[in-house]
Amino acid sequence: MNTTMKNKVQLIGNLGADPELKTVTGGQHVLRMNLATNERYKAQDGEWKSETQWHTVVVWGKQAERIAGQVRKGTGLVVEGRLVHRRYETKEGEKRFSTEVVLNDYQVLAPAAVAEMN
After folding, report:
1. Which residues pair with 107 in a beta bridge?
2. Contacts with 44 (C-beta within 8 Å, 6 or more apart), sequence order
3. Residue 93 lies inside a defined structural domain of this protein
4. Is the N end or the C end of the chain the one with fewer CB atoms within 10 Å?
5. Residue 42, in any domain of the structure
6. For 83, how many CA atoms within 13 A lie in the half-sphere containing its CB?
């Protein structure tokens, strides 16, 4: 049996800051966005709690340029992409790890739609 494993993630949230569009070597565009997702749950003490998770979303090429013109801090987004784990070393020699969502597809949400989902 030939099974293909998928690396796919879908997030619904709000941008916590304006996206950052840069041009990298070779003239290719890369856009970085910080997306906040919220989860509400009832704790053992019966109180409702809210937990925010922050996700780095990376967009490449023409899509990066297009999205940069459509979104800003507070914009609601549905993003679909794949998880990428990176290892790198700082200038001080410290080893670091990061997890990013490399965007495949997205949808900008109306403010009312985001409020209904939270």
Report:
1. 78
2. none
3. yes
4. N
5. yes
6. 10
In a domain, 103, yes or no: yes
| Number of separate domains in the chain | 1
Q: How many CB atoms lie within 10 A of CB 32?
A: 15
Identify the CATH number of the domain in which residue 57 sits: 2.40.50.140
- Say if pTM beats, i.e. exceeds, 0.85: no
Q: Helices H, strands E: what count in the chain?
A: 2, 6
Question: Which is nearest to 101 in space by CA: 118, 115, 80, 117?
Answer: 80
Tokens of 113: 């739609």
How do residues 27-80 score in pLDDT, each as one tens digit? 999 999 999 999 999 999 999 999 999 999 999 999 999 999 999 999 999 999
**2 found inside a domain:** no
